[in-house]
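Q: Could you write out the predicted structure for this multi-component system? I'm mainly interested in how the pieces pack against one another.
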Amino acid sequence: MSNFFNPILVVVLLLNLFVLGTSRITSVIRGVAIQGALIGMLPLLLPGHVSRGAFLMAVLTIVLKGVVIPVMMNRALRDVEIKREVEPVIGFQASVILGALGAVWALLFAGRLPLTEAHADSLVVPASLATVLTGFILLITRFKALTQVMGYLVLENGVFIFGMLLVQAMPLVVEMGALLDLFVAVFVICIIVNHINRAFSTLDTRQLASLKE
Amino acid sequence: MFLILILLAVAVAALSGLPGILLRRSDDGGERISAISMVCAACVGLVGAAGGLLGYGGKPLALVWPAVGGGSVGLDALSAFFLVPVFLIGGLGAVYGLGYWPHCRHPVSGRRLRFFWGMLVAGMALLVVARHAMIFLLGWEIMALSAFFLVTAEGHRIASRQAGWIYLISTHVSVLALFALFAIWRHVTGSFAMTPVAPQTLGQGVTALCMVLVLVGFGLKAGVMPLHFWLPGAHANAPSHVSAIMSGVVIKTGVYGMIRWSALLPDVPVAWGALILLLGALSGVLGVLFALGQHDFKRLLAYHSVENIGIILMGFGVALLGRAMNRPEWVTLGFGACLLHVWNHSLFKPLLFFCAGAVMQVTGTRQMDRLGGLAKRMPWTAAAFFVGAVAICGLPPLNGFVSEWLLYLGLLKGAVGTAGGALAALVGVPTLALIGALALACFVKVMGTVFLGAPRTQSAADAREVSRLELVPMAVLVAGCALIGVFPSAVAFALDAATGCWLQSTGATAIPVAQTVPLGVISLLALLLLACVAGIFWRMRIKEVVTAARRSLSWDCGYARPDARMQYTAGSFARTLVLIFRGVLRPADHPPQVTKLFPVPTRAYSHVDDAVLDRVLMPAGRKVEEGFAWFHRFHRGLTQHYVLYVLVILLILMCTLFPFKNLFAFVFDRRGGGTSVCSSAGKQTLAPPGAPRAQMPYTYMATLSPGNQAAHRNHGRPFTERAGTPALPTAYA
């Protein structure tokens, strides 16, 4: 493992907590963008020579997660004119504590896993588990459509970090496909956000439950 | 060679609706393109089917479809026999649709309807020529789904949507049964190919299981009595030419499935023949009884489909009995009756539905009690309906008579000789007679209420004849009915070829129909009857010229100033019969409420609900819904909750990975004092070689692949070595 690997993952973990703790949606978008760009750099830091595939993946990830998606989200946010996530199910401090507990659990759990020696001392597995958990917490406790999207993005970031274990074995096309999915999903959701806003005069996804029979 | 023609026809039919979808909505060229290509496909397909019937089907064609281990299609006489109605009604219905569902009046639903019409015909033709389970299921699903979109063509009406959903549910249940059937087939024969097994290779249990699944899967599609519940609603609420093809052809694919599968299973025991005979009898009687109780024109015709499927199954049951008991003449007569009735029903039932559609188009209602006197206003439609009604009642000189006659003969031949056959005849013959009589009563009711008498409403009075585009398909079907009725020997070769094909797997040879039934006599009698009728007409015409018949109202009942509302209604006409069978039909009467001294206007009505859908399935469904009301607590429509459920399941799964055992061992051993021992033991239980593969998700397996473990042991560099480990693909598979 490169020397930069674990520090980056520590920053990713901290960003998780930041995303959980802030109520301003712009900050959440910014945090997730930074996180995406950081993990996009990870494939370049892997030991061994940097293959062309890994390079392409890194560049695409950084551009998409760090630039394109945040710009799209910001634009959607501007269109619907909201600023804050109000009334989450559990408060912001509680979310942070929950996220921290999740990170601790991830560290403990990863320590118990039968990993190879090369991975045993790296933070890849715990960071990915903690990030996935953060994504889940965002998805479960936030109600605005935009923060939900952020939850999905964080979740995907966690999966991406886990992919670092397999970067040389996993075909490039899988990673590309995942990225494309993500992009399309965000693209569609940004459109839907506008429609929800117009139809229900709010971005609260709980209103969508009224569409149920 | 002829198989290629069929495949070509399938392709043309499947693509026929596409130009209409691609053209602009205002452009009505699409309907002409689709109708012309459907007619071309029908012609090509009919030529192909004729070739197949004459024995030029050629060898089965293997297709390259690696995902399912290849597929194959073939054309034998049995397939060709069922291809004839598919292409005939597919072509005629497309022409009828030009007049009945024109683009100018239905710009949106019309395009969709024509597209799915082509797909439906293509799907049916594909499943009939399929010789491989996957191709069969492909055709089956294309047919089932296209039929759903056709039934819901008028999706803005609640009744139409509801009928569509009920149809969709039933067709999916049927497909589930077929999945099970093909899975078992694959298990016992080792392949998905639909080739007959040798006699005595499958055990009794497997045969019985296959037959149960065949009965459920194909019986649902065919509309056999307890499984017919989707049929009346779907047929009544679809556009009329869709009802025609569904009733005339789609339900026959269920019959085809049963026949094909009985050919694949050469030793079906006697009991199944008897069961199918009984089911057919039940279906026939109940179908016609429920038809009697209907007020809705198309619903009534739909129940008659149940009845006719019953007759077809009775013939099939006799054939199965004959095959199991080695009675070739039963096979010839029973199977001949079954197949001929398949053709006949696919001629006269579309004819009747076409007429019903014409009536509906000009009057805007399906309620028979709002019609009347249409024979004077729509003479050609009335004449066509009359021919169809005579044919469906099984009266000479039309085709229905021939097939029912074959069935009578088959049942009566069985009565001579064996006790079982006598029993079958004892059940079958009176049942068939009862069905015939009730069908006659039912069609007298329809004819009398709809076409005779005086118009009951203004819309019926204003009716006029429909366009030629609708009359020509009717005329073709009338000609078909008359041809088979008067010259049954013309189709005998097709029956012989198909029977021979069905018997191939058992090794028995079929006796030609002409040897068992004097078909020439039928022609002679039919011609004689026609001559008599013509003579009577001629005499009446002369009399009319001489005496100048007085024109007055029909049904004036001896009143001084008769009114159209004094006529017998459909309900009152059938009332006596409905009351005789009230134990089965349970007619629900809602008498008028007269409460005050000077009563206000009120209404009275009666209806006969479906025995299975309204009395069993709906209440049962409601009970299940009530029983699972508590589940709504978990089903609130909130994404957040659903994500939470995913997380909970994920955590539970992860906890199974958590080494609780080691934890306990660690806690208890520390109390004992042996820390070092237990920690090493913990390591070993954590990663025993090979054991975690069974439990862990694939991501962990990937890091734990054999090469990796070797690397672990050798303290090598896992990253570089793992890149080439062969175990990774299996970990992903």
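A: Regarding packing and overall arrangement: The mean pLDDT of chain A is 82.
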